Amino acid sequence: xxxxxxxxxxYTELPExxxxxxxxxxxxxxxxxxxPKRAHHMYNDFMDELEYAADCGYDAxxxxxxxxxxxxxxxxxxxIASALARRTTGVPLCVMGNSLALYNPPTRVAEEFAMLDVIxxxxxxxxxxxxxxxxxxxxxxxxxxxxxxxxLEAHDLVLRAWTExxxxxFNGRYNxxxxxxxxxxxxxxxxxxxxIPGGGSIETWQWCAQMDYVYCYLSYYGYKAGRATMxxxxxxxxxxxxxxxxxxxxxxxxxxxxxxxxxxxxLYREPAEYFFNRCLHIDPRFAAPAGYSTEATxxxxxxxMVKKAANAQSLILGDKMNRGMTMEDFVERGYIVIGSPDxxxxxxxxxxxxxNVGHLMLLMxxxxxxxxxxxxxxxxxxxxxxxxxxPLFSEWEDRWWPKPMGQEERAALPAFxxxxxxx
Amino acid sequence: MTELPDTTTIDINGFATRVWRKGSxxxxxxxxxxxxxxxxxxxxxxxxxxxxxxxxxxxxxPGGDRxxxxxxxxxxxxxxxxxxxxxxxLEGADLAASSVGASLALExxxxxxxxxxxxxxxxxxxLFDEADPPADPWAQRADAVPGLMCAxxxxxxxxxxMPEGANSIEWPIEQTRASEAAARIFWPLGNTRIEKRLxxxxxxxxxxxxEGDRVVPRGYAAKFAGAIGxxxxxxxxxxxxxxxxxxxxxxxVAQAILDWCxx
Lengths: 423, 263
Known about the structure:
The complex is a heterodimer of chains A (423) and B (263). By secondary structure, chain A is of the alpha/beta class. Chain A is built from 15 helices and eleven strands. Chain B has one domain (6-262): Rossmann fold. Chain B has ten helices and eight strands. The radius of gyration of chain B is 17 Å and the shape is globular. Classes of the chains: A alpha/beta (423), B alpha/beta (263). The A-B interface holds A 137-138, 141, 143-146, 173-174, 284-286, 289-291, 295, 298-299, 302-303 and B 66, 68-69, 72, 138-141, 144, 168-169, 172-173, 176-184, 187-188.
């Protein structure tokens, strides 16, 4: 299986009484909480951590896009990925991803992703999320009634921009461009692998199946909460006659490893409680602007005994539920995979097998976790857990993985001697 | 129990669109506000007492199917509403409208001045003053919406409560759709720059405003009155009413409209 190291880049110094005194970590979080000089250190630590993960041998490093968000300081993940393209040599770069409808014209995404693919020598995984309502409708002012149509049209435009050989006119409902002709063109042909982070909507699953894209469920609430969604996904794949290749799917999981479970509980308590209690404190008024969820998804939710909430809603339901919870509760509920290396191997093996996911995106820096502890977690997992998990799913081919240029074809990176951090 | 209206449908861009009719006398039209009209309301009976009231649904609002889904631009919306008014038999008639419907009624009165005889609008959308911004009706906790729309939250709750025998899946979807349809045209600020067109409105226009409007502040009445090009405009505040004043104070709002249109 693939073990990918995912950074959310949270602001690590939200005040202790954040939850009581501030309505939301997202959209209208107050600027007075942001200290740019402290954030200078955070960004540089975070980028060190991503490079460290690459050095430790993770299968990929992952970044994502959020706006006006106290737990995600990457309005442009492409900027981070671009730095990583120059500071790493072999590791795939998973940009999870660019919210297509937010770019005008969306051709910009085709261009920037092509740049990343070219600079990195074909190491890009191109993620195309619709984006949460907080990011898209509220922070970026996109119309919830048109968001999905714009997203799908932007996807078509990007795909054509990558694959058509000649300059073409794009005559879309929302985008019209007389001359589409991007320079540069992606290294990976016909285009970088496309992964779709999504909530539990059946239309997204069907679309991923039709387009042969990877579907990723990026909840922060772990494998127990993700079970229903992934079961739904695989049931739909079966209905559509698709195989159970686990590499059709990706899943995010908070993971914390130490020499023993007791030590892990002690080491990671503070950052975990910071993450679940402060970072995920979101004002419910931003959860569900009318039109964001399609009527088919609403209907499925109303018809189902188990409420299939859209991702943002489940985030906020989670926030409500988490009030006053502690590390023990998070562990008990499966939000966090935690323990000694043996215990973590056991839990992830069970998780990956149960959910049938071949791409696991590990959240190993979470909340207020500092660089030293992040690197400890990262290194211990790489040395003592990763080798034992890698053979899982070896009977399946990962058709959705980057195909970079050969090492001998690639540019040397002058004036840069990568320090092997894991040494 | 009040007598129900006659219901017919007209075709607007391929969507079956509900038209209610009740009463007799000279016709008067009504376009609903935010949330639309999922059921007949007492306000319409007050109008129907002395006039033939004609109530076509707006695209995407209750009775308007998914008509909003094909409207991508402001011009698309105005043309759809224009077609609706004509098909409902309201060409040249008096027209009353509320909230989002009021904004669209003003647009039609501006572009087709001869199409409206006298106009009465309740708290229209369409302007945005940074110093006194309208509320964001889409960023609300569900339990805050009734009190935002009406001075008496119970009135909104009663409007939106599922009637016995209604489809328990489709009813809530229809209510969400109404909010989406309003978003489709007015997202994110409610600002359609209608001030550019208000000068073309020639029909005498009555501006009604709930004194306790928490969506569009009542100071907007003067902004509209100042921009509308009609020789006669008048502002009337409705005590004890919120944004959808016709729901909070049906008799007072209907009487003001009937008086205005009696001229």
